Amino acid sequence: MTTHELFTSELRQMHWFENAWVSMLGQLGRSTCLPELGSALKNERAYTQEHVNRLRQIFVSINEPAEDKESAALTGLISDLKDACTFFTDDDNSCDISFILAVIKAANYQIGAYSGMLMLASALQYEQAQGMIQDIVNEEEQTVLDLKALLSRHNL
After folding, report:
1. What is the DSSP letter of 83?
2. Which domains does the chain have, with CATH numbers?
3. 60-99, pLDDT tens digit by residue?
4. Directed axis angle between helix 92-124 and helix 3-29, to 10°?
5. Fewer CB in 10 Å around end: N or C, the chain?
6. Which residue, 89, 98, 100, 126, is CA-closest to 6?
7. Is 85 in contact with 32 (CB distance < 8 Å)?
8. Please, which residues have CB within 8 angstroms of residue 145's CB and are 6 or more apart in sequence?
9. What single-letter DSSP state applies at residue 74?
10. Which of 140, 153, 123 is nearest to 43 (CA)?
11. Distances in Å between the alpha carbon of 6 and those of 20, 40, 74?
12. pLDDT tens, position by position, 104-137
């Protein structure tokens, strides 16, 4: 597999994940009790929709079709996120904590995946892709900081 093929494979996996994540964030946002968490999830959903748009632009910039590629790891992450509140039916606070931790887990996965893609884009000299991927990494890092601050404010 060439570096370009590896980059394209990673790009397709993240395209699949980001599309699934947009939907998941909508579901999580409607299920929260803390207004601040609902707002944070709404912001993350807007970021994620922008990530989808950027990924499509990257496909165009490298002359590849915008296709999805599901992966076992990302499917498992989505499954974990769907289960984020399954075990908490009586305690809304625990459910919100579960949501926050699930989103932090997803954001950290994205930071790692996109950091690897950033290295590949650099090696391939895909400058436009580098800038867009770096923006995604920065937004995900901010999401983690915002959610940690939310946990702190509520002594969680």
Report:
1. T
2. 3-153 (1.20.1260.10)
3. 999 999 999 998 887 887 887 777 656 555 555 777 888 8
4. 160
5. N
6. 126
7. no
8. none
9. H
10. 140
11. 21, 33, 16
12. 988 999 999 999 999 999 999 999 999 999 999 9
Token pair for 26: 């909508």
User: Is pTM, for the whole model, over 0.85?
Assistant: yes
Contact 107, 143 (CB under 8 A): yes
DSSP conformation letters of 14-32: HHHHHHHHHHHHHHHHTT-
**What tokens were used for 34?**
């803390």
Q: Which helix (H) or strand (E) holds 54?
A: helix 35-61
Q: How far apart are CA 31 and CA 28, in angstroms?
A: 5
- 99-122: string of b/e by CB count within 10 Å (b at 16+)? bbebbbebbebbbebbeebbebbe
CA distance 31 to 38: 8
Cβ atoms 136, 65 nearer than 8 A:
no
Q: Rounded to an integer, what distance in angstroms lies between the CA atom of residue 20 and that of residue 102?
A: 14
Q: Structure tokens of 14?
A: 């993240």
